[in-house]
Amino acid sequence: MRASVPIRNARVLIYDSGQMGLERLYEEADLPSAMYPAICLAVKTYREMMEETEDGYRDHFCRRLLERLLISFDENDIHLDETDMNYFMQRIGKNENDSFDVAV
């Protein structure tokens, strides 16, 4: 892992109720600071969706997550360049077969 933190510990930091764990992990991974607001919003949206979802359909969940994030990015004035946005969408939409088709 980029931050040299075991996966179990990274999960705890990411899902910490405050933002400090995620922020520290993000810094340790030396990821682009411009994408941090988008990552925070993605984690928040994911948490909200996990609380409201009842089905186990990953593709459906990923599509809904992408739709909500794109709307939230716009509402929160978060702008990613095309390369970062494509990467972001690809990572969220990736399934176990690496064949998830994102139609946005």
Describe the structure.
The protein has 2 domains: 1-31, no CATH class; 35-104, no CATH class. Helix content is 62%, strand content 0%. It is built from 5 helices and no strands. It has helices at 7-14, 20-28, 36-52, 58-75, 82-93. The longest helix is centred in the middle third of the chain and has 18 residues, at 58-75. The model is unreliable at 95-104 (pLDDT under 50).
Mean pLDDT: 76
- Unreliable stretches (pLDDT < 50, length at least 5) are 95-104
What is the alpha-carbon Rg in Å?
Answer: 14 Å
Shape: globular
Short description:
This protein is mainly α. The protein contains five helices and no strands.
How are the secondary structure elements laid out?
Elements: H1 7-14, H2 20-28, H3 36-52, H4 58-75, H5 82-93
Helix pairs in contact: 1-2, 3-4
Characteristic terms for this protein:
single chain; 104 residues; mainly alpha; 62% helix; globular; disordered C terminus
